[in-house]
Amino acid sequence: MKFINRTQELKAIREKLQSKKFELYIIYGRRRIGKTALSLESMKGRDFIYYLATEENNLKKIKEVGIRKIPDLKYVEQDWEAIFNFLKDRVIIIDEFPNLIKENPKIISIFQKIIDTILKESRTKLILLGSSISMMEDKVLSYKAPLYGRKTGQIKLKPLKFSEIKEFFPKASKEELVEIYGFCDGIPFYLEKVSYPFWKWLNRELKSLDTFLKTEVDFLMKYEFKEVGTYKKILEAIALGNTKLGEIKNYIQAKGTDITPYLRNLIEIEFIEKRSPILSSVVSRKGRYYIKDNFLNFWFRFIYPNLTFIEEGIFQSKEIRKDYNQYLGLIFEKICKEFLIEKRNLLPFEFTKIGSQWGKTFQGDQYEIDIIISNDRKKEAGFFECKWKKISERVARNLLAKLQKKSKFIKVNFKKKFFGLIAKEIKGKKKLRKENFLAFDLEDF
Fold first, then answer.
1. Residue 380 burial by CB count (10 A; 0-12/13-18/19+): exposed, middle or buried?
2. Count of Cβ atoms closer than 10 Å to residue 363 Cβ
3. What's the mean pLDDT in 324-350?
4. pLDDT digits (tens, 9 = 90+) for 426-440
């Protein structure tokens, strides 16, 4: 499989590998994000020892792995300090380091001692990988953790951007890329699963007896939680558009139950995020919950409610396709934010904030603005409507007029306001631009 993108990350790791001193490098991020592939790609042309940790017998297993590379290791005592002393000056990768912590919580203090007394003055390169974001940040990276101050670098690996997935599907149009992105986000594991054309592949996958679509989310959730039932209900509620705390409670029928610990845990492992209006000073009451990655969103919207029919072999991709454009509305907003950040040179001012806005009109009704970009110091703002549709010039003008009206409900006094529209396709785009509107469509991406 060809390794795609991650150029900056590869460069950062290889710089550490070339140093003449000890390096402790931490690479972490959600499962399936490509940590192992990245670390192994960075090792091309080098000698290294790679160990994938499990939840038991790690000391015995890492020695067995090491012996395959260096047979003389068999004469070394089965002890963490003795093994690292023997492997000094080499490159060692330990994947799923949180599994070592689960087996023995004292392992972090053991590693601290090994670094301080054995490795610190050596040329050893120790790379620790972890999929449990909460555990890596709390037990490995936090200031109270024994390893604090020992790391020489870290990468929190994130999904690829929409603009980076084209290389996986060179034949796909921009519209098709948006459809694919709505399924797999920028997560390499899922991008590699999909074959082009997307809808034919998805139909075959739904009919497959051993499709990963049936088991993947259980696999992800059981890694993080012992009991997954309530978490699944919450994620389904959010995927179906219930983004407020009260709406989620109503959907899962937990009116008298405090579900905030569940939401907090889901935020901690980065399954969901809580968003507040970008220009609101009161964040807690108005916050809404959204599923962070598109694969989980897709799964809980289209797969989870239909698992029985998928098992029976009667569910087809055309059932998903009926509602897919509506589903892609929020996905397209995410893509539009990325577009505005990457194409800042196309905008009339430099912005320091980007996000969504919602609140009440003067009459007490609700209003929403898809994206606002702002510069607080210069008191400038741009207001954008995002539409996953092909729209005529007339419709575009109507949308922009409504956007101008909605901007008046915002209590921030901006000196300059710009209004824009981002859509699948905009007729009369050039004419709108001449009138100082910001009009972009897929042609500009």
1. buried
2. 6
3. 97
4. 999 999 999 999 999
Domain(s) of CATH 3.40.50.300: residues in the chain = 7-156
H or E stretch at 28: strand 23-28
The fold of 197-311 is Arc Repressor Mutant, subunit A (1.10.10)
Give me the helix-helix angle, 229-239 and 212-224, nearest 10°.
Answer: 120
In the chain, residues under CATH classification 1.10.10.10 are 197-311
Give start-end residues of each CATH 3.40.1350.10 domain in the chain.
334-444
Q: How does pLDDT run across 285-325, given as a tens digit for each residue?
A: 679 999 999 999 999 999 999 999 999 999 999 999 999 99
Q: Coil, helix or strand for 24?
A: strand
- Asked if the 334-444 domain carries CATH number 3.40.1350.10, the reply is yes
CA–CA gap between residue 36 and residue 42 (Å, rounded): 10
Q: How many helices (H) and strands (E) does the chain have?
A: 19, 12
pTM > 0.85: yes
With beta carbons less than 8 A apart as the criterion, state whether 98 and 108 touch.
no
CA distance 246 to 267: 17
d(CA 130, CA 113): 21
Distance (Å, whole) CA 381 – CA 340 = 13
> How are the residues of the chain apportioned to helix, strand and coil, as percentages rounded to the nearest 5?
50, 20, 35
SS3 labels along 267-294: HHCCCEEEECCCCCCCCCCCCEEEECCH
Write down the architecture of domain 7-156 according to CATH.
3-Layer(aba) Sandwich (3.40)
pLDDT at 364: 86
User: Buried b / exposed e across 181-214, counting CB within 10 Å, b at 16+?
Assistant: bbbbbbbbebbbbbeeebbebbbebbeeeebebb
**Residue 408: C-alpha distances to residues 350, 362, 402 (Å):** 22, 9, 10
**317-342 vs 198-207: helix crossing angle, rounded to 10:** 130
By DSSP bridging, strand 153-156 and strand 353-360 are: unpaired
